[in-house]
Amino acid sequence: MKLILTQDVRNLGHKDDVVSVRPGYGRNYLIPQGMAKLATSSALKMLAEDVKQRAFKQEKIKKDAEALSVKLEGIKVILKAKTGTSGKIFGSITTLQVSNALKDMGIEVDRRKIVFTEEPKTIGEYKANINLHKEVTKSIDVDVVAE
After folding, report:
1. 41-62 pLDDT, tens digit each
2. Domain ranges of the chain
3. Which of 50, 93, 104, 142 is in the most buried spot, having the most CB atoms within 10 Å?
4. How far apart, in Å, are the Cα atoms of 143 and each of 23, 29, 34, 113, 134?
């Protein structure tokens, strides 16, 4: 089943990509959630026209994402967490905490764009990838310390 994505879907594609998925996944999940629409010939023609009109806007968005990537160069986020005697964290470190820490530094990043390479379970250093644009991804260091 061929679909046109109406928004970014993790592990599948970005907005306006034409993807091939299994019929059940498309019909029962993607289309009802508003994440995709059927890739009919008329929908593909409309998509081509829309992509052509938005090309110059996307260039500006990409330049903004690259500028933000330069700001994030060398940034290290330090988060405090309650821990047990073995160094294991009570609760969890979330992307919202990383987003708020970046906001305190004067950098605005949406929490949904932040993905941990490895979930923080104990104190130590971790990497978080920030997907600023479909072609621009930045990796930052997250240091989890005991409170």
Report:
1. 999 999 999 888 888 888 888 8
2. 2-60, 70-146
3. 142
4. 43, 37, 37, 19, 26
DSSP state of 30: I
End-to-end Cα spacing for the chain: 51
Is the pLDDT reported for residue 133 higher than 90? Answer: no
2-60 has which fold? Ribosomal Protein L9; domain 1 (3.40.5)
Q: Count Cβ atoms below 10 Å from residue 24 Cβ, excluding itself.
A: 9
Q: Residue 32's pLDDT is what?
A: 95
For the stretch 62-77, pLDDT in tens is: 898 899 889 888 889 9
